[in-house]
Amino acid sequence: MGTPHEAEVATDLHERPVDILRELIRFETVNPPGNERPCIEWIGAVLDTYDIEHETYAKDTDRPNLLARVPGGDAPPLLLYGHVDVVPVTGQDWTHGPFEGVVEDGFVWGRGALDMKDGVAMFLAATLRLAISDEQPAGDILFLAVSDEEAGGDDGLRFLVEEHPELFEEVKYALGEFGGFSAEIAGAEVYPIQVNEKGICWLEVTFTGSSGHGSIPRTGTALSKLASFVDALDGDRLPVHVTPPAEAMIEALAEAAPADRRETLLTLLDPAKTDEVLDELGQEAVMLDAILHNTTVPTVVSGGDKENVIPESVTLVLDTRLLPGQTPEDAIEELRALTGIEAEIEVVRYDAGPSWTDLGFFDDLAAVIEDAVEEATAIPFLLFAGTDGRHLSRVGVQSYGFTPIQVGDLPFLDLVHSADERIPVETIEWGTERVVDAIKRYDG
Ligand SMILES: [Zn+2]
Questions:
Q1: 168 and 41 co-located in one domain
Q2: For the segment 417-430, what is each residue's pLDDT rounded down to a tens digit?
Q3: For residue 135, what pLDDT is reported?
Q4: Ligand 1 mean position to 112 CA, how many Å?
Q5: Which sequence positions are flagged as catalytic?
Q6: CA 234, 238, 242, 243 torsion-angle sign
Q7: Which of 25, 35, 305, 364 is buried deepest, with most CB atoms within 10 A?
Q8: Alpha helices in 197-327 (DSSP H)
Q9: So what's the pLDDT on residue 185?
C-alpha cells in the first residue's frame, strides 16, 4: 500500500506533462490491490483547477474511475482513456525507486512510466490544453482514467461498459494504449497504431488416469498424460489464421520494409507457407507469429497432495489468446487436434477481443505521426495481448492504441512490466503534442 504523497496541483500543469507523469508514478497503485483512489482524486483535483467537469464511477470505492468532459461541437465525442493501476515490482532489482518518479540520465524512471502512466499524463495534459484553448474540438473530448486494467478491468472498464453503457452511447472512436511508439519490425522502421487485439481465454485442463499406491509404478497416470500434453504443445503451433487486421498490418509492414524483405513478409499471408516463413525469420518475428495463430501457454499446474499416492486427476491452466473472430470452442478443438490427448477442458475466463475493426480514424492518426517524423510509416497493429480496448468494443467503440512515444534504442517491449521501466523525458512533451494534433484532426 502506498502512503499518499503530497501531490502538486497547479495551474500550469498542462505545460508540464513530465511532472504529471512523475506525480502519477508516486501513487503506489500496484494491482492487486490497486488502491487507485488517491491517484484518481489527485487527477480530479487537477481537473478542478481547470474548471473541467468530471464524475467518478466505482464498483469498489477504493477503486474509482473518473470521466471528464471538455465540451466540443456536434460530432460524436472522442474518448481518451488510460489505466492508472500498475503491475507489482516484487522480486525486481531497480536502480531507482519504482515509486519515486526520479528523473535521471534523460529518463523518467518508475513503474508505469511506459505502461501506462505516460499515456495518462499525455491524455490529461492534452485535455487541460484543450480546456484553456480558444479552439473548439469537433466533438466533446472525454478523458477517462480507470482502475484495474492489469487484473482484467472487473472494477474498471468492464464495470463501466456493463453498468454504465450510457457513458459511451455516442462515442465512436477512442485513443488508449498500446501503440504509436517507434519500433523496428522485420527490418522496417514503423510506428504501430493498435487497431485490434487478441481475446483472452484461460482454460483448465483436467487429466485423469490410473491411481494407487506410490510403491507400485503404473502407466497411463494423470501426470504422465499431462506431461505428454505439455510436450505436444512445446514448439508446435496451432493452425494459421489470416484475419483482416493481421493482413492490414503485414501489408503495411511489407510496404515499409526494405525491398529485399517485402516478398518474405507478404508470403506470411499464404497460410500454406506462413509457418515456414516464421521459422526462417526466427526471433524477430515472434510478434508476427502471435498475430497469425491462436496461442496457448501452460502456466499453472496443480494436483497430487501426498508423497505416496498416485493422484487420480491433475489440472493444468492454459493462458490462451484468441485471434479476432475465434472462439474458445475453436481453440479447444485445435488443442485436441494438436495434442491428440483426451482430457476435459473447461473455460475459466473468457474476454472476447473486438470482432470487428473500424479503420475510420486510422489515416488521421497515421498522418499525425508521418507529418511529425520524416520517413516514418505508421502501420495498423493487431496487438498480440489484451487491453481495455476489448471492453470498449462491446459498446461499439473502436479503440486505437495511440500514446505516441519515440523510444530510440530503449528496449521498450522488454521494459514493460520489468525492473527499471523508464521513458525518455523529451518524448513525453512530443507525445502530448501528437495527441493534441490528433484531437485537432478529429472531425467525427
Ligand atoms: Zn497497460
A1: yes
A2: 999 999 999 999 99
A3: 93
A4: 8
A5: 85, 149
A6: negative
A7: 25
A8: 222-233, 244-256, 259-267, 274-281, 286-290
A9: 85
